[in-house]
Structure formats: C-alpha cells, structure tokens
Amino acid sequence: MPNVKLHHNGELYEQEVAANSNLVVLAGIKKFPHLKYGCGMGKCTKCMVTVLAGGEALAEPNWKENKMLGDKLNNGCRLACQLYISDDIEIRQE
Length: 94
Hints:
alpha+beta
C-alpha cells in the first residue's frame, strides 16, 4: 500500500492508502483528512498540491491539469483530484 505524506499548515500527516486511490475521493469520504478540495473534477484548483517526492510514479498531467495549472506544472504542482496514487508520495498543500 502506498504511503502518502501531506504537509499542510505546518503539520505533517502520513497515511497508507489503497493502491490507485484518489486522495480527493478519500477526503470526501473522510478517509484522508486535512486535504482541501472543491469540485473534484479539475475545474476549481482548490486541491492543488506541490509534489515534493514520488512524482515520477504519477501519470503525466492530463488536459485538465494543463489547462488549469499551466506553468505551475513546471514547479511540481498537480491537481490531487486528477491523481491516482500507486506508489509512495510526499505532497504539500498551502
């Protein structure tokens, strides 16, 4: 099971999740607390995170991420609602 480290508001939250989990879905059903999110469909960017480690195991940004994040993708930003976690990852959300 992948291990997710989330840095949020100066705190570190660490949790194992089932393979191929979507963190926004888990947050929505109260299984991954502390992650901010909004629409869950890649339209609002409220779930934007910065990937600190483990990004190489993620799929390439899709068209929604390219449209909504643009140049922020170059700085490691991703939309959590568009990510499926299959390996350990460390992320930060402001």
